[in-house]
Amino acid sequence: MITFFIQGGKFMSSPVSGPETITQLQGGTSQSTVESVYSALKADIISGRRKPGEFLRIDRMSRVYGVGPTPLRETLQRLTAENLVIARGGRGFQVAPLTIDEFVDLNIARTAIETAALRLSIKHGAEDWESRVVAAGYILKKWDAAMLAGEADNLSRWENANAEFHSALLSGCPSLWLLHAQQGFANKCDRYRRAAVVGAGTPYRADVEREHGEILNAVLQRDADRGCELLATHYQRTVDAFRLVVESGLIDTGVD
Fold it and tell me: How far is the C-alpha of 84 from the C-alpha of 6, rounded, in Å?
């Protein structure tokens, strides 16, 4: 199995004063501190803890994340390069908004990369890959059903199960660079998917449960054409769900 991750200090979710929840940092050396705050702030942006359009002022963010201004500025510059943060000159930095046009574009790139990786995974995946896919599919089916039943407390477990299922599908792919590129696009699309899951509600979740089952069956049958078609449709429906929640005014996208 190939897993790509950001190295650095560990982080965990923990409440701070007030209603917000942020990813708290562990201490360490100067470089590990930079990596820690980068990983933590990126995770908070992707998860939605840091809202689209939110201003990230150096003094306030330093207090929230417990680091000095230097590692925080470096982190914000890196996230700006990844288009997750926008530099506003004298006004500081701002979490990038969510836009339909960007999600459409990201989904085109992600789908192209993931279907290529899925084809290779189906072609080269051995029994251990197949076992991982079966196990991940079984667990996800459980949490898909819980989400469909409206058990909101299980959202974090569903997120973990969903991530493991999609990772398992591609884990038989032998191309490290393809998987590396896939992870970058998946992280960016994850911001949009989370907004769609929360905003669209039960109808979207019902489709997700069915689609996961169809993808699993096609992949286990080693039907690459069918599996890729279903995966592409699965991702497109997320784009459609996001468009619906935006046009219905159900979420704040951070667009001025």
Answer: 16
Kindly indicate the confidence band of residue 237, based on its pLDDT and cuts at 50, 70 and 90: very high
Report the candidate in 221, 218, 251 with the shortest Cα–Cα distance to residue 234: 218
Cα distance between residue 1 and residue 235, in whole Å? 23
What is the distance between the alpha carbons of residues 203 and 197, in angstroms, rounded to a whole number? 10
8-state DSSP, 191: H
CB within 8 A of 249, min separation 6: which ones?
A: none
Beta bridge partners, 95, equal 85
Distance of alpha carbon 103 from the chain centroid: 13
- Phi, psi for 85 (deg, rounded to 5): -135, 150
Q: What is the DSSP string of 59-94?
A: HHHHHHHT--HHHHHHHHHHHHHTTSEEE-GGG-EE
Residues 159-175 pLDDT 10s: 899 999 999 999 999 99
The answer to whether 10 and 25 are in contact (CB under 8 A) is no
Bridging pattern class, strands 93-95 and 11-15: unpaired
* Under 8 Å between Cβ of 46 and 82: no
- Which residues have C-beta within 8 Å of that of residue 178, sequence separation ≥ 6? 113, 116, 117, 120
Q: Please count the other Cβ atoms lying within 10 Å of the Cβ belonging to residue 152.
A: 10
